[in-house]
UniProtKB/TrEMBL annotation:
Specifically catalyzes the NAD or NADP-dependent dehydrogenation of L-aspartate to iminoaspartate. NAD(+) binds at A123, N180. Pathway: Cofactor biosynthesis; NAD(+) biosynthesis; iminoaspartate from L-aspartate (dehydrogenase route): step 1/1. InterPro entries: Asp/hSer_DH_NAD-bd (IPR005106), Asp_DH (IPR002811), Asp_DH_arc (IPR022487), Asp_DH_prok (IPR020626), L-Asp_DH (IPR011182), NAD(P)-bd_dom_sf (IPR036291). This is L-aspartate dehydrogenase. Pfam families: Asp_DH_C, NAD_binding_3. Keywords: NAD, NADP, Oxidoreductase, Pyridine nucleotide biosynthesis. Residues 7-120 form the Aspartate/homoserine dehydrogenase NAD-binding domain. It comes from Planococcus plakortidis. Its EC number is 1.4.1.21. GO terms for molecular function: aspartate dehydrogenase [NAD(P)+] activity; NAD binding; NADP binding; oxidoreductase activity, acting on the CH-NH2 group of donors, NAD or NADP as acceptor. One of its GO terms (biological process) is NAD+ biosynthetic process.
Length: 259
């Protein structure tokens, strides 16, 4: 598998380390697209892939799977073209699907082009439970409570404070770099206007902590993940990068675990 990455930041660099240096995937990152030539050249020297600042040239390179690792706004500019060029696509910035019509459009495009669109579980879990629970429509409520340190939220404060309490839709609008998890949860479950989200800044926590509570005809679920932030970008949890690595590891295999 030849892998391309859109982005030269924290997740992109982590994947280059794990795939090209540590060979943790049956494949290789052969192409990276970004806007910063200095960073791209540094990555090229270290990891031996090609670097492109032109999306069309990047998509003309012989890659079959592309990982998006930029931002919600930048993802919107690039990812349709990945599918149009018949590459499988793994999206990190799930917040781009706040526009649900765009997700539907991209899914149809993937079907028409015979490609796959992957939304990794990112920094959370429990998506299997939500999807099973709603198989017959019986999933009733889903709530996410996210607790992060001031550093992880890119702010300074010495007191605990609820920063946001509302829907997943409004959460991603207000915190596009911090709550992609709310969107994947909403897409797997009951939708972004029904999924409730609370974001708390807490100077006493070191880990990015996500608690998911769901109820329905199946019963109820409570799941809490306490994620180590990544050193290169404390807004992003290690589990988010690992979930993309896991998609790449599982992609070609015959065995599928979970729904
Ligand atoms: N699904 C999930 O659970 C999670 C998703 N994320 C998301 O994953 C994405 C990547 O995260 P990180 O690598 O940690 O972020 P990062 O901030 O380290 O890297 C993002 C990179 O995108 C580049 N970029 C921004 N706009 C660009 C443009 N127009 N053209 C080209 N490059 C552009 C920046 O220069 C930066 O290098 C972010 O959107 C983040 O919010 C992060 C954590 C969890
Ligand atoms: O990495 C995390 O803990 C969550 C995050 O930033 C996001 O969902 O955007």
């Amino acid at each position: 598998m030849n892998i391309g990455i859109i982005g030269t930041g924290n997740i992109a660099t982590y994947l280059l380390e794990q795939v090209n240096e540590n060979q943790m995937v049956d494949g290789r990152i052969t192409a990276v697209f970004g806007r910063n030539v200095e960073t791209g050249t540094r990555l090229k020297e270290r990891f031996g892939m090609e670097f492109y600042t032109d999306l069309d040239e990047f998509l003309s390179a012989p890659v079959d799977t592309v990982v998006e690792a930029v931002t919600v706004d930048a993802a919107r500019l690039f990812i349709s073209q990945v599918i149009e060029r018949q590459k499988d696509l793994i999206v990190s910035s799930i917040g781009v699907f706040k526009d649900f019509a765009f997700l539907e459009e991209l899914t149809n495009l993937a079907e028409a082009n015979g490609t796959k669109l992957y939304l990794p579980s990112g920094a959370i879990g429990g998506l299997d439970v939500l999807q099973s629970a709603k198989a017959l429509g019986g999933l009733k409520t889903v709530r996410l409570t996210t607790r992060k340190s001031p550093e992880s939220l890119g702010m300074e404060t010495d007191r605990e404070q609820v920063l946001f309490d509302g829907t997943a839709f409004d959460a991603i609008g207000n915190f596009p770099k911090n709550i992609n998890v709310a969107l994947v949860l909403a897409i797997a479950g009951i939708g972004m206007h029904e999924t409730k989200v609370r974001i708390i800044v807490d100077p006493d926590v070191k880990r990015n902590t996500h608690t998911i509570e769901a109820q329905g005809d199946f019963g109820k679920m409570q799941l809490q993940v306490e994620n180590h932030p990544m050193a290169a970008n404390p807004k992003t949890s290690m589990l988010a990068a690992l979930s993309i690595l896991s998609v790449l590891q599982n992609k070609g295999g015959a065995l599928r675990i979970g729904n």
